[in-house]
Design brief:
The protein is α+β, with helices and mostly antiparallel strands. It has two domains: 98 residues, OB fold (Dihydrolipoamide Acetyltransferase, E2P), CATH 2.40.50.140; 307 residues, BirA Bifunctional Protein, domain 2 (2-Layer Sandwich). The chain has 15 helices and 19 strands. The strands form four sheets. It has an eight-stranded mixed sheet with strand order 8-13-14-19-18-17-16-15. Strands 1-4-5-7-6 form a five-stranded mixed beta barrel. Helix 6 crosses helix 8. The chain is elongated and about 100 Å long. About 4% of the residues have low confidence. Keywords: Aminoacyl-tRNA synthetase, ATP-binding, Ligase, Nucleotide-binding, Protein biosynthesis. Its EC number is 6.1.1.22. It holds the Pfam family tRNA-synt_2.
């Protein structure tokens, strides 16, 4: 019955209700230029969670039980005075009864009956709530009279409600008006155990919120981060689809490890011991190699999908993939989690230059999308996290990329180390994250593309340059973010690829399928990957990747 009433109310409004729940999303009210004031008088049904509550009590009117009925004149003030006098004399009357022996066991029927017949009705009150439903930053002010709520029903922070009423104008401080909902029907109350509710305090630090990953989406900060994350994912798919890339799903479990990383998760299977009670078979993931199990050869959780993506690029042309990648790094870092999401792009018939150009356009399109489509969330995060973040994103859209070879980057860093008398970086060494960030933040003060790395610093499949020492790989480094994109032109010559596999001592048999792509219709191709979680960090201005991943997995922490 209540749901039918809610449906009827929602269908008669000029606002379009959400198709699958017949409630109006708050963003359709609050994201208007006037904050929704043009909707005054509209009847709506909204649902959401209480962000804050305040009770405004009205002056109580004492009366004698049964003295008058609704609709009749209220008792005179002299009656009220008599009641107050009687209430104040009850302890004195009990003393007299006790002296006369009129009570037994601490009970005094006469005075008890007198006290119960004289009472004060619970004073009427108005509850003013700030309610959010996750669709936007702003909350809707909701006004509920106490007569609508069940007795002793407190609408604490975290309570879920579905209410119906009329939108009206409410005056606030500094002469401004806001829209509010005057409730006349209460359809649902989802109570909260306030004493154990993690968000009962007004401000909870981000590191503390990580202990309640299932509850922290109720906070405004995490909601804004997740909406921006969603926008970035949508923007990534939009760019790829608009430029003719096809989405391909690559495997999470793989027998090859393209990055050559030793810090990887091994996937095995666990079976009940012979004679033991049968247990359900389950996958076991560890970072220590174990005996052969479910699969015929050692298997791992993938750290990169580019090798598998190549096979589809060499058939469909231009492809991309979006999914989780895994690294079993033992150390803790604000930039690392065991499971992180990555966008990988592969282009057939293209060389390193084309991949760099595509990566630059891709990065700029993501920055532009956030600026143009997440203004309210960015405004909120700018107030809470980084005041310059929106301007920084805008500057990335308009910026040019400084392109330097590995050797040129090394020379620039050497000049700095000479002045500071730090340890010199020798040619052939891997540029650390600190080295790369220094190039973008301090030396060039703009996004930097570093290319042509020593072959020892990159995976075996990267195309060998003519000098025989460097390979066609690149990193895109962004101020205040570090390395966001890595890419390469991959080796299409089977003889050189075979030589590289032998040089690195890799198991050639595991890569026979990969060599087949060179045996049968080989073509030049290139691609790149963007660490998606780092892009969310960059867009929001946060510092720890665990604060932008819905359910982060890190060493010793996987509770969900």
């Amino acid at each position: 019955m209540e749901s039918e009433q809610a449906t009827t109310a929602a269908s008669t409004t000029r606002l379009s209700p959400f198709k699958y729940s017949n409630r109006v999303l708050l963003k359709t009210i609050l994201d208007r230029r006037d904050g929704g004031l043009e909707l005054i008088g509209e009847r709506v049904v909204i649902g959401g969670w209480v962000k804050s509550s305040k009770e405004v009590r009205k002056e109580p009117v004492p009366h004698i039980a049964g003295d008058y009925v609704s609709g009749e004149p209220e008792p005179r003030s002299d009656v009220c005075c008599c009641i107050e006098i009687l209430q104040s004399r009850i302890p004195f009357l009990r003393t007299i009864v006790k002296v006369l022996g009129g009570g037994s066991g601490g009970h005094y029927p006469l005075t008890d009956k007198l006290e119960t017949s004289i009472h004060t009705s619970p004073p009427p009150s108005t509850v003013v709530l700030q309610v959010g439903d996750g669709s936007c930053v702003a909350n809707l002010q909701v006004v509920i009279e106490s007569s609508l709520t069940p007795p002793c029903q407190l609408l604490h922070t975290g309570t879920c409600i579905i209410v119906e009423g009329l939108l009206q104008k409410s005056w606030v401080l500094q002469g401004k008006y806001v829209i509010e909902l005057k409730v006349d029907k209460l359809h649902h109350i989802g109570t909260v155990e306030y004493s154990s509710y993690p968000l009962s305090k007004k401000r909870v630090p981000l590191d503390k919120l990580r202990e309640f990953c299932h509850i922290r989406p109720r906070t405004t900060t995490v909601q804004s981060v997740m909406r921006i994350r969603n926008a970035l994912e949508f923007a990534a798919h939009t760019f790829c689809q608009n430029h003719g890339f096809l989405s391909v799903h690559v495997p999470i479990i793989t027998t090859t490890d393209g990055k050559g990383s030793s810090e990887k998760f091994h996937a095995t299977s666990h079976f009940a011991a012979a004679g033991a009670k049968e247990e359900p078979k389950k996958a076991v993931v560890d970072n220590v190699k174990s005996s052969e199990g479910y699969f015929s050869s050692p298997t791992y959780l993938t750290s990169s999908g580019r090798m598998h993506l190549e096979s589809y690029a060499c058939a469909l042309g231009n492809v991309y993939s979006f999914g989780p990648r895994f690294r079993a790094e033992k150390g803790e870092s604000p930039k690392h989690a065991a499971e992180m999401w990555m966008i990988e792009v592969e282009l057939a018939f293209s060389e390193l230059e084309e991949a760099i150009n595509c990566a630059g356009d891709f990065f700029k399109s993501l920055c532009k999308w956030v600026v143009e489509n997440c203004s309210e969330d960015m405004k909120f995060l700018s107030q809470r996290i980084d005041k310059t973040r929106t301007e920084h994103l805008q500057s990335m859209v308009l910026s040019t990329f400084e392109r330097v070879s590995y050797t040129e980057a090394l020379d620039a860093l050497k000049k700095v180390t000479e002045k500071k008398k730090d340890t010199m970086i020798e040619w052939g060494a891997t540029l650390t994250e600190a080295n790369l960030s220094y190039l973008a933040d301090e030396i060039y003060k703009k996004p930097v593309i570093v290319y042509n790395y020593p072959k020892e610093t990159k995976p075996f499949y990267v195309r060998l340059n003519d000098d025989g020492k460097t390979v066609a790989a690149f990193d895109m480094v962004v101020p205040k973010a570090g390395r966001l994109i890595s890419g390469s032109q991959n080796e299409e010559r089977i003889n050189i690829l075979t030589t590289r596999i032998k040089e690195l001592g890799l198991a050639a048999q595991q890569y026979e399928w990969y060599l087949d792509l060179r045996r049968h219709g080989t073509v030049k191709h290139s691609g790149f990957n963007l660490e998606f979680d780092h892009m969310v960090l960059f867009a929001t201005g946060l510092n720890d990747v665990r604060d932008v991943i819905p359910f982060p997995r890190s060493r010793g922490k996987a509770n969900y």
